[in-house]
Structures are given as C-alpha cells and as structure tokens.
Amino acid sequence: MLTKRPRGTNDFLPEDTAKWQYVEKLLREICQQFGYAELRTPIFEETALFLRGVGDTTDIVQKEMYTFEDAGGRSITLRPENTASAVRAYVENKLFAGQQPVRLFYMGPMFRYERPQAGRFRQFHQFGVECFGADSPAADAEVIALAWEFYHRLGLQGLELNLNSVGCPKCRPAYRQALQDFLRPHLADLCPTCQERFEKNPLRILDCKNPQCQQFLQGAPTTLDSLCSECREHFSKVQAYLQAAEIPYRLNTRLVRGLDYYTNTAFEILLADIGAQSAVCGGGRYNGLVEELGGKPAPGVGFALGMERVFSALNAQGIELPKQPGLAVFVAVLDENARTQAFQLACQLRRAGLAVGYDTMERSLKAQFKYADSQGAAYTLLVGGDELARGSVILRDMQSSEQQEYPLDKVVASLQTKLAK
C-alpha cells in the first residue's frame, strides 16, 4: 500500500521550488537593502515558550499546537510561529548587548493543527522580520514598508493595508472594561469560545469569525476611543511616516490580530481571492514580549507573511515569475569508448562554473539531443572516439543547429566566451 504525505502538507516539485527560490532570493535582497540579517531558530522549542509568548487564550495554543513529550520527558512543540523563537534567541544570545536596533528576518516551516483548506495548511511556510530595541514609530513604518515593497516588486495588485492601534498596558484596561460593559448584556448569546475569552482576554472577541458574535459587536467601542496620549501620538506618527512613504492604508478598528503579545500598532495586508483568508501578511508592535520571555524590557515590532499565500496570490492574478536558466551545456556521448573521457570533460566544465548535463542513461544520440533540448541546454558537446583521437570535440549550437570542431584544450574557454555573449 502506498504511503501518502500527511494531510495538510505539500510536496514541492522542482518546477515549484524554482519559483520558491526566486521569491526567497527577492526577500533576501529586500532585507539586505533594509538592513535585516537572517536568523535561523530550531523547528521545535520548549512548549512553555509558546504558552508564554503566544498567549494561552489564543486559538494557536488552545487548539492548534503540535505538542509531544520527548524521550527525556520534556514537553516539546513544533513552532507554530517564529516571533517567540526570535525573542528567545535575542535574549539567550544577548543580542541586546550590542548595537540597537537588531534587525532580523527568518523563513521556514511552521506547524498548526488546522482544518486544511485553500490557503491553509498544517505545515506551512512563513517569512518574517523582527526589529528589536527601537520604540520609534519609524520602526513600525519601516517593517510595513518592507512588506509593501515585497508585494510591489512581485507585481501584485489590489493590496489593502489595514491599520489599528491596540494600545498599551497603561490604556488597555480602560478599553477592556468598556468592551466588557458593552458585551455583558449579550454574554449568554456569544459562542462558547468568546464566553471563555470574556474574562481572560475580551479583545480576542473582536477577532471571532462567528457571524452571531460579530452581530453583537455592532456599535462596540473601539481601541482608538481609549488610547492614552502616548499611544495616540505614536499611532499618529506611524500614519505620518506611511503617508511620507506613499503607502495607502485603511483604519480598521476591529483589527487586533490573533496573538496576545501585540501593543500599539497592529496591521494586516489583505488581498481577495486567495482562499480561506484574505490576509497575506500581518504584524505589529510587541513591547512587552521580551520581558515576558525573561529578558530585560526591550521594544519590538515585526510581521510574518505566509509563503503559500504569496503563490496563491500570484496564481490568482496570473503573474508569471521569471524562469530559471537551463543547462549551459549538455555533454553527449557518441560511442562507448568515449564515455569516461566525456564524463571527465563534464566534471571539468562544472569546475569552471558552468551548468552541465551528462548522459547517465546510455541513450542513443537522438535521445540525448531530445533530453538536452528539454533541459534548455544552449550547447551540446559531442564526444566520440574519433574526435578524441584528433584531440577535439564537436560543439553544437542547440538553437541554430550549427556545429564546429574545437581543440579539447580550448573548449572550456571557448564555451565561457560564447556563454558570456
């Protein structure tokens, strides 16, 4: 019986991974231009990191984490997101002791036990950035600008930036109380999850997708109504920086994001017609998270975007990514006596930096030409016993079909010159 891949996961075949590599290269280029360096963290962490970092009232912690006990009796969780891991790395490796801010980016697989559907998987891939040590509204605008630049360079249309402020520990209690007072008459009619959130974290009720709960939220007070003067000024400056960068945005007072650690700025970038959810990117500020995870107080801001959703968006808008170049040269063997020297020549060409194919199937010459053409080879080198006896090989231009004999000791340089043109 054939063993199939686990539900909610994907195989990415070579034609897929070529597109992934293009997008990953673009992300790395943009991060380099913005001054962000790559961070790589473990795929699994101690469960306590996510309980403290993500929040025990979130859907992620309550319903979606892949948690198990290892052979040493430790509770381990496959990372459901990467901000908590980045904060842990920032604290554990004492990055706070160097020049601030510390600008980091990451990309890799994350794991959540969700119901698989279009745009949502149990193993999915995220790219994200984190900026530690900067409390300025300019840092908020910078991470938003980085994400916006990425989607702009991909050529995606119809993007919408949603922006909100969720306040800080100083002003959030007043909003929490106002929201509870508003919802208390409807408490019995809220879904069981929101009834549980009512005391633990009522702001999460704003994030509920249940239509009945959304109905009772009509006319509810907003976070902007309760902002303290510092949060109001911070949010005003974030908007000023975005306007200076000519990045359009829409105020969305219901936006609280799905994680408990956000303070001040929260944002999402939306795009319709990509599957189960229209959000392709989300993030914000989390000034209390470093301290929550055992470090000295340090501000932080960042975002994460789903890589699978990037490709869904590209497909939905019919955007074709540039194709990777094919082989520069294919080494074709004319007769059995030349096979070893043909292989030696292929190795020599690869050492010279060329992309080279070689016939490992012992096919006919016609089949070798067909394969070379399928691999996009610009040239084919014909290596046979008679040619080798003369100290030469035949070079065939695959586009024009013209052939020319070259001395064996000149063929590498000749190919490099032709390919450079």
Explain what the structure shows.
The structure is a single chain. By secondary structure, the protein is α+β, with helices and mostly antiparallel strands. Helices cover 37% and strands 20% of the residues. It has an 8-stranded mixed beta sheet with strand order 1-5-6-11-10-9-7-8, with helices on both faces. Strands 13-12-14-15-16 form a 5-stranded mixed beta sheet, with helices on both faces. The model has no long low-confidence stretch (mean pLDDT 93).
What's the helix and strand layout?
Blueprint: H1 14-34, E1 37-38, E2 44-46, H2 47-53, H3 59-64, E3 67-69, E4 75-78, H4 83-92, E5 102-111, E6 123-132, H5 137-154, E7 160-165, H6 172-183, H7 192-200, H8 211-216, H9 229-244, E8 250-251, E9 263-270, E10 279-285, H10 289-292, E11 300-306, H11 307-316, E12 329-333, H12 339-351, E13 356-358, H13 365-374, E14 379-383, H14 385-389, E15 392-397, E16 403-407, H15 411-420
Parallel strand pairs: 1-5, 7-8, 12-13, 12-14
Antiparallel strand pairs: 2-4, 3-4, 5-6, 6-11, 7-9, 9-10, 10-11, 14-15, 15-16
Helix pairs in contact: 1-5, 5-9
